Sequence to fold (195 residues):
Amino acid sequence: MSVALEEWRGASARALDEIESLHRLVEETSETAPALTRQINYAYAALTLAHFQRYCRAVHTEAVDALVAVMPGPAALARVLGGVMVERRFLDRGNPTPSNLDQDFMRFRFKLWPNVEADDGRNRRRKEKLTQLCEWRNAIAHGDISHRQAAGKLVPRELDFDTCRDWRRALEGLAISIDAVMATHCRVLGCSEPW
Fold:
């Protein structure tokens, strides 16, 4: 397991668990629960995607570091290659959409999604859920939820706690598969123990 996946299952999971606990507490004790829980759902969705993006960026960096570590020749050349592999990475400036992930991991001459989907048949649906979450995150962050709802761009149309939890479970499955397929690909590229 990569350090990135350990972090996703450790600190990130604890942070998201805290949001779930807050949601339950507000739902049980507040007279204005619907309005407050809606805002907590928005925070939960945005934070779930933020933590997943951090995982994806970290596992990408770990894979780069593993490759750089086994490169023959001058260490300076290896550092240059490592810098090129992360330069202008989509994960550093955009959401972890399926397309952005595909482009960033293609730097390893590796098609991420066919491998992730082959690793677990449920990942095709999980990938769709990632797309939904990215759309919702953008609507939340840019303050245009009602506009996107009216245009039919948000699936599901309303955001609830169960949907947030479902997205989180989907990203957990994707993280496990991404970790596994990247470790395998790094071995193919010559890294005996990428993580």
